[in-house]
Each structure stands twice: as C-alpha cells, then as structure tokens.
Write a structure and sequence with these properties.
By secondary structure, the chain is an alpha/beta fold. Helix content is 37%, strand content 28%. Helix 4 links the parallel strand 3 and strand 4.
Length: 299
C-alpha cells in the first residue's frame, strides 16, 4: 500500500511488550509505508529494553513519556486490567486507540470509552482478529441453514497470563455469532459448564431455532479452532488450516481458502480509519463484550 505525497502518515506507539505485543511490533514494522512507529513501552522496564534492542525500536522510559510522545494513535496490548486506564488516558489526549480484546474489565468501563470516542469523533477499535478470517463468509452462510452448530476453540496456556477463558478465547466466537451469524437474533443462554480451574468452559446458546454449543479450553497438547455445522449442509470449518469440509452421506469434499495475515489486515484497517476519523461499529463491540460478561456472571 502506497501513501501519496500529500497524505498524512499517522504516527503510532505501542504499550505492552509481552507475548502478543511482539506480534504487534513485528506487524507495525512491516507497515512502515502507512505509519511511523514511534516506540514501545511496558511497565516492566526489562521487557521494554529487550524488545527495543531486538526490534530496533525506541523504548520509552516511563508511562508519561509514552503518553506524551505525540503519537496520532496508540496500540494497547497490555494486560486487560490496564485497558481502561490506558485507553481513557489516550482518548482524552485526542489520540486514536486500538485495544486488544476485551476492551475493558467491565461493561460500564467499555460503555464509557465508547461514549467518549463517539462524542469526540475518535477511532476506538477493539482487536477481534477472527473478524478477518478468510472463512468468515462461509461461517455466516452455513449458520443461516444450520439447526446445530458446535464450536471448539483450544489453545495452549500462556505463562503469566491471567485473563479468564471466556475473555481470552471464547469471546472471539461469541463475537462472530452475535455480530455476523445472528445479528438480529437475541441469544438465549441455555446452560453453562465451567471448570473450577478455568481450564474449560462450555456454553449452550439458542439463536432462534438454532442451537449452538461453544466450547473453549486450554491444553498443552492442542491448538484447535473448528466450527461444525449440521442442517442443510453438514460441514466443518477449520480456522487453523483455513479449510472447509463438506459432507454428503459417505462422500466428502475439502476446500482450502487462501491464508491471510489477519493481524496485518486488522491494524491496516485501524490506521486507515484514523486518517479520516472513521468510527468503528461500537454497537458490535459492546454486544459481544456484553454476552461474554453475562456468561462469566452466570457460570
């Protein structure tokens, strides 16, 4: 993507140099044609220094230096309990914000951030990366003709990562369900089964006549992201391999969809939005977060 000579090239800074932060840093460096990457900050100064040295990017010495660096936009990849404060501080300085999901720790905090961003024509984009999966159109298509859907998301646990399994894993699939598959249908939670150690959670939800079982689990052995559809089509969509398997009796057909860099697409969209102060769909962000919070409260 080329930037014309008379087009402003936004500046961006990042906070949070942990596991996901390093992916974001690598991506932002690749996007140097559309943004100027000013630097990184982490409350753990050793992480800041390590990342700064590894990627050749400036490391801010303090939160105050980071906040006042003059960036047009901020990428928030710090821990969830910091999301509200950092996003709120940046928005009040007229800085556009990309914040990894979940947007905040509570519905009240999320609503406050969204209201401020909307009223001040600032971009506040939440990191729902599965919105950029190349399989999304097929997920929506099969959902419209299915009586039963089973979703399984299994990921390896990450050290020193304290988000609960619903906010960390399941929220991706809840977002796809409420905002893309069944955007006009009120979800009804039928049952919730939750492991006491927050290793696994299974939720049965009704969207009209369609029964959906959403399972999230942490495991050292597997990484799985599958959607299994029963109805007009019997199909399995594997988000790990971007493959679709259609079943017809004893016959089956497998198709592979071209892979994309979802994080790059996501951050490119955010940067493009900031140029024209183009808002995201705040109602979508709040709706998926609200369903996740409802499940957490009732498990």
């Amino acid at each position: 993507m080329k930037i014309s000579s008379n087009q402003h090239k936004p500046t961006i800074a990042l906070i949070g140099c942990g596991h996901f932060g390093t992916f974001h840093i690598q991506c932002l460096k690749r996007l140097s044609e559309i943004c100027d990457f000013k630097g990184v900050y982490d409350e753990n100064s050793q992480k800041t220094n390590n990342v700064s040295a590894e990627f050749g990017i400036y490391g801010f010495d303090s939160y105050e230096e980071f906040l006042n660096c003059g960036a047009d936009c901020i990428d928030v990849v710090s821990s969830t309990n910091t999301h509200f404060k950092v996003a709120n501080d940046c928005l009040k300085k007229n800085i556009h914000v990309f914040v990894e999901k979940p947007i905040a720790s509570t519905i009240r905090e999320a609503a406050e951030l969204i209201l401020f961003a909307r009223n001040n024509k600032l971009v506040l984009q939440v990191g729902y990366i599965e919105r950029y999966t190349p399989c999304l159109k097929k997920i929506v298509e099969f959902s419209s003709t299915s009586s039963n859907i089973s979703i399984v998301r299994i990921a390896k646990p990450r050290p020193n990562f304290n988000d609960n399994i619903i906010s960390d894993l399941m929220i991706h699939d809840l977002d796809i369900l409420v905002n893309f598959c069944f955007p006009t249908v009120q979800p009804k939670i039928v049952s919730i089964k939750n492991d006491k150690n927050d290793i696994a959670c299974s939720v049965e939800i009704l969207f009209g006549d369609t029964k959906v079982n959403v399972k999230a689990c942490k495991s050292d052995k597997l990484n799985t992201r599958t959607y299994n559809f029963s109805g007009k089509y019997d199909a399995i969509i594997d988000l790990q391999t971007n493959s679709i398997q259609l079943k017809n009796g004893t016959d089956s057909f497998t198709d592979k969809i071209q892979e994309v860099n979802k994080l790059e697409l996501e951050l490119t969209e955010f940067i493009d939005r900031t140029k024209n102060h183009e808002p995201t769909n705040y109602e979508q962000d709040l709706k998926s977060f609200a369903l996740a919070e409802l499940i957490k409260q009732n498990r």
